[in-house]
Each structure stands twice: as structure tokens, then as C-alpha cells.
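Reopening this one. Same input as before:
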Amino acid sequence: MGRNNRELKFARTLIFTVEQINSSPQLLPGVTLGYRIYKACGSNHLMRAGLEAVNGAEQGCGSGRVQALLGHSSSGPSGDINRAIGPLHVPQISHLATCACLSDKKQYPSFFRTVPSDQFQVIALVQLMKHFGWSWVGIVYSTETYSVEGTVEFIKEAKKEGICVEYTELFQKIDTVNFNKIVETITHSTSRVVLVFMSLSYTQDFLKKVGRNVTGKQLIGSESWITTASLALESGSVLQGAMGFAIPESDIPGLNEFLLSLKPSDAPQSSHIRVFWEDVFHCSFSPSNTSKLCTGSEDLRTVVNDYTDTTETRTVNNVYMAVYAVAHALHNLLQCENGLNPTTGRSCINKTEVMPQQVLEQLRLVNFTTQNGNKVSFDANGDSVAQYDLVNWQIGEDGSANIVNIGRYDGSKPDGQKFLIKDNFKIVWGGNHAEVPRSVCTEPCPPGTRKATNKRKPVCCFDCLICPEGAISNQTDSSDCFLCPPESWPNENQDMCVLKPIEFLSFEEIMGTLLTLFSCFGVFLSVLMSIIFVVHKHTPIVRANNSELSFLLLFSLTLCFLCSLTFIGRPSEWSCMLRHTAFGITFVLCISCVLGKTIVVLMAFRATLPGSDVMKWFGPLQQRLSVLAFTLIQVLICVLWLTLSPPFPFKNMEHFNDRVILECALGSAVGFWAVLGYIGLLALLCFVLAFLARKLPDNFNEAKFITFSMLIFCAVWITFIPAYVSSPGKFTVAVEIFAILASSFALLICIFVPKCFIIVFKPKLNSKKHLMTKTTCQAYLLAFWS
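Same output, byte for byte:
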């Protein structure tokens, strides 16, 4: 009966509006609007209005033809009516038929409505869910056209915005098994938001049979029921926090008094009003033993139902605007100035000549504002401007529902401004949650990860994959990761790029400090041995070992130890050029001295043979010139290297991903290996000559020590090559320094330590007698240098 009460309210609103228009001197002056109201409870009654539009006026109902039809309240019946009258160009205006399907002008050519199409409601609902981050929702719908079409449109629009539907459950009034299935689906679902897209009658049944078993969910309602406060009495706290879009509130002055002043005597021929009266006041107009007798003077203000609810002004305003739309269309048709209609540009017509097709054409053009401030116009599809109030159910302790406006949707505004949530209203959430409920299939991927589609699940159910090495994502739900610039690297969370640390062998770190100490220790030993040789330069062992070459060798070894320091510290253009050239030249000078000493030993042995005078061919001058010549060759190689393609500082970002290695690039690899090759060639020559002289008959055969030192020297540098090539980063430099220090210590220890040991700790052995025990080359050298 509640549904009939509401329809009676719509009918009485139509009567009120027609009477208001008829009493207006501005709108349709001299013209009186009439109306016929049909009770369309079945298919036969439903088509009656269409037939009347075709056949004209009934006998006794006035001389006017039916110019337009108002109604129906439901989408399905409205579509059936328009299929019948559309081909005859009879306009139809509905106040509540919201199905988006009715916007199809091919099927429904003469259909208009003052209620927004569900297409707009669906867009508003999608924006609502997007605003609160609800991307994982469930839907309950019914078999009626309004519900089915609205659900299909919602799924389509939601997909565009990345919102997924976990389930769609069809509610049927008479299927008990279906009730249990719906409850089980909703209860066990992971989505927290449930869209109930049904008409009022279906929603009433749904809440009675299913609703109380659905707890802890955020219900979203369609406009057909979201403002029906009486539903709270049937559903308990299930509707607490429910949200939805409703037709905007709009007060119509004088309408409430008109509705509440209704008496059966106002329409004595209406059986519907008599039944309504008997039902509301629990009485009967016919004498009966079961109920009291109706007087007809009862006051409607004493009862509460859908008809007497004066707070509900949303839907009746659509009826009000629909009647005014027809009136304005007729008003425009009947204008006449100087024989022409200023609206149509055609000849004036009489009010008795108006045809439905002309009204239809004018309805497409109407654009006016009603007395209560509502703008009325229709687009090409017959739809009115989409405006909604966003409402929130706030149920009190007594079970009464306070439906609060918390936002608005206005389809006439630009994109980005259509949906608005009011800041000064408290929102109550479903399930009595204190905060906005979360309804997502997968929590958003945090920065440092990317979304990856899971083909076995809906698009809202994705995987969050950690960004690969060297890549970041700095936004939530990033679809891709981005590589950092070459000199940057992701931080620990992989959500931002930070500059890579620059690495080089420095004096401050332990390895650099140790190598520096060893280098300084080598310098100290070289200087110490030089002092020992200087102090004992007149002793036989110093004189017999070519003191000039010995001092030059000690000097070159000192330079070798010092040049290792150039490899430590931040590389610069000068240090890169200095370190390799200094190393190459000092080592050649060192090996040249050793080579000179080796040749002298061999010459001295040859000189002890009868009739030999070879020593005159390799005297002090020749020794100096040989050292100078060998060294100048290396100098020439270094000059060419520095001139053509010198070493330079280089940021190596390929060897390690997470740091930059600052090193000295070789420039010309040929130059580098030419320097090393030349050193190796001299060392090999020196080793061969010393090896040949290792068994010469001496008490103190220096060739043995030179052979051993050169063996170590060659071993160090042979192992250096693979170690140098394979060592990463600063360890490459450390390997090179180690090779320099090891080979320098080998020469220093093998050649000079035995002599210094005898000079300092065994002075008795440092005598001519000991050195000349045998006729040896050592004795000859002693005599030669004397």
C-alpha cells in the first residue's frame, strides 16, 4: 500500500500544479489545462493512456485532445507506453523512470524525463567510489529493467575508472534458496562495499529477508530508495552509514497544505481515494461489523505515511517540473505577434488546433526556471540536467533515520568540479567504522614496487613486484619502474635515486694507510742503506760492488717507493699522468742499474782470464751511458704516450652498480703495455745474465743475489698482469702498488741487505784478505775500483 500512497501523492501534485498554472496570468493566459489520471496497475490499464492519445477525448471529458502523457514512475512500463505512442509523436514525460535505455531515441522517440537518467547516477556512483578509494565492490540487483540496465551501466563505467566488481547477485522475491546464497556471498566476500541497485519495492523485500544478516558492510543505494526513511524500521542498523545519490530537495510553496487538506469529498468519483482513506484511518464508508464508519472529515495530519510525509520533497518536484514543461511548450506554441509565432516563426495557431507533434517539438526547446528556482531543459536524448544530493544515513538510538545531505553532484559543471563533498558534515560509515572503510582487492603498491597484472584475477587484483636492481618507483601504484641516471642508484626503499658514493684508494682508509706505511718504510730502508754505504764507502765490500751504481740504484729504489704514493688519493689529471710515467721511468732506471752491475760482474770474470782486456770496454763511462740510454728509451715511450693519449681521471660506472669507481683510465692501452713491456724486457735480460753468472767462483758472488732478486721481480710482475686485469675498483690500484713495493723490496733486500749485514754485524768479513782468498772476479773488481 505504501507504493499506492506515493503514487496518490504524485497525482495530487499534478492536480496542484495544473490549478496553479490555470490561476497564473503570465502562463497560458486564456487557456485552461485539463488532465486525466489513470490507475495503471496492469498491462491493459497501462496502454489505456496511449490509446486515449490516439483516439482523442472521451465523451464528457472536454473538447481537448490529449497533448502529452505524464508518467509512468517505473522504467519498464514507461518504455512500453512510449513504444505505443512514440510513432504517433505524442510526448511522454516521466518523473521517476531513470533507466538509461530510455535515452535511445530510436526506440523511444518521444520520451522525456525530469529525473536524471541512470547513466548520470551511475557516473556519480563511480565518482563516489573513486573518491573514497573503493575499487572492489559487490552488487545486488533485481530482475526489473531499472535494476538490470543500471547494473550493466555501472559495471561498464566502473571498469573505465579501474573499479572491479567482485560479485553480482540477482535478488528474487520468491526464491528462498537465492536469499541464503546472497547472504553467504556478501558475508564471505572481501569487498566491504555493497551496491544495492534496486527499486523501492525490491529493496523493501531485500532488507526484510536478507538485510539483517548483512553486517559490517558499507551499503550504497540507488536513488529509488536511498531517501525512504521508513526502511530503517524494517532493517535495523543495516542501513547505518548507507550512502547514495538522491534527487535534490526542493520546496514547493503551498503543496504540503494542499496534500494534507485532501478529503474524500474532493473527488467523490475516485474509488482509489476511498480505499486510501479506509486504509489510513482503519474505517469503512459502508456499514460494517468489523470496522468503524468513516466520516470523511478525518484529518490526514494525524497519520504518518508516504503520502503525509511532507519532508520528502525530492520526487514530487519532478512531477511539478513535468507539468510546467508541458505548460511552457503549449505557451510557446500559442504565442502570436503580427500573425506569426515568434518562437516557431510560423503562422499563429488556435488553441484548438494544437497537435501532439507540435508539443513534442517545443518540449525539446523549453528552457525555463520554475517558481521554486529549478531550471528545466532537455538535451537531445530527452534527459534533464543531472543533479543529485549525496545523502548519508545516520540512524539514532531510537531507530529513526536522519538522512543528511553531505555532498552534491552537478552534471552541468566542468569535469573535476561535478562531484563535491561538504567539509562541515560528519559522515557516518557502514558497520559503525570510525574511518573510511577500505574496499580493495589488493592494497596499493608502495613506492619501490610496481603493479603487475595477474591474468587469473580481475584487474583490481594485482601483484606488487619489487623494482629490479637499479630502478625505482616514487609513486603509489606505479605501473612501471624507472632506471636511475648513470651516476645515481636507488636508496634502500627503492623510491628515490641518490648519488652513488665515489670510491678510490685514499690515504684515510686502512688499505691506503698500510700501503703508505710500507712505502715510507721502503724509503727509510733505502736511505738507511745509503747512509751505511756512504759511511763505509772506503771499505772493500762497498768498493768491490761498484759504489757509483750502488748509490744510483739506492736512489732509484727510493724513487720507486715514493712513486707508489702517487697511486693513492683522488685521481686528477696530473696525478694520472704522473703515476704511470714516474713508475715506468724510475723502474727502468732501477733495472738499468742492476743490469749494469750484472754486466760488470760478467766482464770482471772475463777480465780474470789470461790475455783479456774487456773491462776497458765497459768502464765507468760506459756504465753511466748504458744506464742513461736505457732510461732515455723509457722516457721517450712515456713522452709519446702523454702526447698522443695520456691517462685521465675516469668515473667507472660499469664495474659496480651501486658505486662509482674513480680511477685513472689508461688513455692509450698500447702506451701502458709498452711501458710495462720495456720494463719486463730489461728485467728478463738482467735475469738471464745474472743467471749465467750465478756460479762464478767468489766468496761473495753478487750475481747470485741479483739472480734471486730478479727472479722475485719477474714473478711479481708476471702475477701482476692477471691480478691487475681481474681486480675490481680500487683493488686494481692496490694490486699495482703492491707489485711496485714487492719488486722494490725484493731488489733492496736481495742486493743490499747481505752487504749491510756484513758491514754492520760482520766487519771482519769486510776486508781484502777475505775477498781475495781466491783469485776471483771479486778480487779483480776490488783491485779495479781501487
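So the earlier flakiness isn't reproducible anymore. For the record, The first strand starts at residue 69 and ends at 70.
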